[in-house]
Design goal:
A 6-stranded mixed β-sheet has the order 3-2-1-4-6-5. With 132 residues, the protein is of the alpha/beta class. Strand 2, helix 2 and strand 3 form a beta-alpha-beta unit. Helices cover 33% and strands 23% of the residues. The chain is built from 5 helices and 6 strands, in the order βαβαβαβαββα.
Length: 132
């Protein structure tokens, strides 16, 4: 069995557009539903399993939208769903890491944060991945 380290991409930028289709072909992607992102979503040629669009009352409340999705992301990609190969972290596009977001992520066991183009990455601690 091949085990790969799964990183979930979370797009909170309602105007990311065509980049959504590219991301959707390479990783599980959770994308804020907007007119621009939905159009690009439909143009994706290949689909990575477990990708979805999520609704947001205020598309510009990016930190709130990310935080609101953490339970579902953890449920769908964590040890409860993938006991042999849970996700190792997330890559957030369309949001800079703030103290508020970092504190929320730490509650889920994220402990390694770094800048990435257009956003940031956060990795789960080993104990959080395994729920030891």
């Amino acid at each position: 069995m091949v085990v790969y380290q799964k990183r979930v991409v979370v797009v909170v930028d309602p105007a990311l557009g065509d980049k959504v289709a590219e991301l959707r072909a390479t990783a599980p992607v959770w994308v804020v539903n907007s007119q621009i992102n939905a159009a690009a979503w439909g143009r994706a040629e290949s689909l990575e399993p477990n990708s979805t669009m999520f609704a947001a009352v205020d598309q510009e409340a990016r930190a709130d939208n990310l935080i609101a999705q953490l339970d579902d992301i953890d449920l769908h990609f964590g040890v409860d769903s993938y006991p042999e190969n849970p996700y190792v972290g997330i890559r957030v596009t369309g949001l800079a890491l703030s103290d508020e977001v970092e504190a929320a992520l730490k509650q889920y066991g994220f402990d390694d944060f770094r800048w990435a183009e257009g956003g940031f990455e956060a990795d789960l601690s080993l104990s959080a991945r395994l729920r030891c």
